[in-house]
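Support request from a user on the community tier.

User writes: "When I paste my structure tokens into the form, the page sometimes reloads and wipes my input. The last time it worked, I copied everything first. Here is what I submitted, just in case something in the input itself triggers the reload:"
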């Protein structure tokens, strides 16, 4: 392969799928990970290995990466995109929803980092791209646990960037505002979902998944000596 392997988690829809298509168009071989492997295979992208992996399963992630690297060479980047958003008022929300967000949004992210980091350090290059949210920079109503996980993504990313900056490894945080994806559908509180949809309409529309994919590709496409530490993007009409 003339271009390097890119790993994308949560690649079955939304930002992950849009990013996979963009990198495939640029000629990169891909390792796509998600629980819905049939959705990955339906993308029908060239030079792509699709594996059914839950990011909370560290061993499965490492096994998939080893398989992809044996086929396509070392991973030059990972896009840690897998995430869940379960909104709710703290007093009423099922604590199992907090646990699910912590498992996927934080532990899953750490598993992705851990899978690729040692190899990148040994090679003296690599890029770790963590998908956070504006909710990792400021708070929103009914977002208590979700904001907590995304603030964690920001902290993990920045601390890791400092740790590996001298070893040629870049760490990039992408923090989108509201995006038209399946993410809201994870929320079980119908009143909160309805309010969120109304908020999206009031701002005149939100980002498309491809908007975020373009930001990811831009950050990755810079020379290895340039690390765009964070990109924050949102629809122009999103005031908060």
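"...and here is what came back when it finally went through:"
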């Amino acid at each position: 392969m003339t271009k390097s392997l890119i790993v994308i988690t949560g690649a079955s829809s939304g930002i992950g799928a849009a990013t996979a298509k963009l990198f495939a168009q640029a000629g990169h071989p891909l390792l796509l990970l998600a629980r819905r492997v049939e959705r990955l295979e339906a993308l029908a992208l060239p030079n792509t290995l699709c594996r059914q992996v839950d990011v909370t399963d560290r061993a499965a992630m490492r096994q998939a990466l080893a398989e992809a690297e044996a086929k396509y060479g070392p991973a030059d980047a990972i896009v840690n995109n897998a995430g869940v958003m379960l909104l709710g008022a703290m007093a009423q929300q099922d604590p199992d929803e907090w646990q699910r967000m912590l498992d996927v949004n934080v532990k899953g992210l750490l598993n992705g980092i851990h899978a690729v980091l040692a190899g990148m350090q040994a090679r003296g290059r690599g890029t770790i791209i963590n998908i956070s949210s504006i909710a990792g920079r400021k708070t929103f109503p009914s977002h208590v646990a979700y904001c907590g996980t995304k603030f964690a993504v920001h902290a993990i990313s920045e601390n890791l960037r400092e740790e590996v900056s001298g070893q040629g490894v870049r760490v990039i945080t992408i923090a989108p505002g509201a995006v038209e994806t399946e993410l809201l559908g994870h929320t079980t509180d119908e009143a909160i979902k309805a309010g969120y949809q109304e908020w999206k309409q009031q701002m005149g529309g939100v980002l498309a998944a491809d908007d975020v994919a373009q930001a990811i590709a831009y950050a990755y496409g810079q020379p290895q000596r340039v690390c765009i530490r964070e990109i924050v993007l949102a629809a122009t009409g999103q005031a908060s």
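Agent notes: The reload is a front-end session timeout and is unrelated to the input. The helical segments are 14-25, 37-42, 58-72, 95-123, 144-164, 190-202, 209-220. The longest strand covers residues 169-176. Escalated to web team.
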